[in-house]
Hints:
By secondary structure, this protein is mainly alpha-helical. Helices cover about 75% and strands about 0% of the residues. Mean pLDDT is about 75; it is low at about 10-15 and about 20-35.
Amino acid sequence: MRLSCFFIAVFFLVGCESLTKVKKEVPDDSEIHAETALDGTFCFYEKAPDDFLYNCDVKHWVALWVDASAQPWSQRKQTLDTLTNSDYDRFHAYILTLMNDTPYQDKLRAQLAFNEILPKLTSQSRNVIDVIAGAQNNQLMQFESALVVLEKENTSRGEKLVTLQNEIDSLRKKLEELLQIEATLMDKNRSTQQ
């Protein structure tokens, strides 16, 4: 029992650690203000890859997010299935999976793919993404992961309880049969003594 709880805790911590590979250092207030101050231009890359469209067009990405939030998961899933492994499509997939109704596995897959391009982005865009979506998305995924682990543990314990209850019922029946045999033998013994 203790061993299973230990393994569950280890798996949970490993899952959470895989979501946050980069350790964050706390810069002083002036650095935070300088990096997150949004001036007239906001670009995700200093020099974007050729296939990364709309690098400096935040309105495009916000529109994608708003459109995605209005779509059911099935429709977003169809769109996800058509995307490639380009940086643009990884970013697009990340946005499509930010909604709460996205299944955990799809959300995790998009997050891990997005984490691969994250270091290439400007520090300003990384900070903005983390504040707007990243931190909440990671926390939600950690909660979902914990719920899955707890659900599996509860299911396992429930199955063990059912097994134990069946064993108890079987032992109770055997005990009743033995008591009945004992009562019969005692009755026979009394009748032979008379």
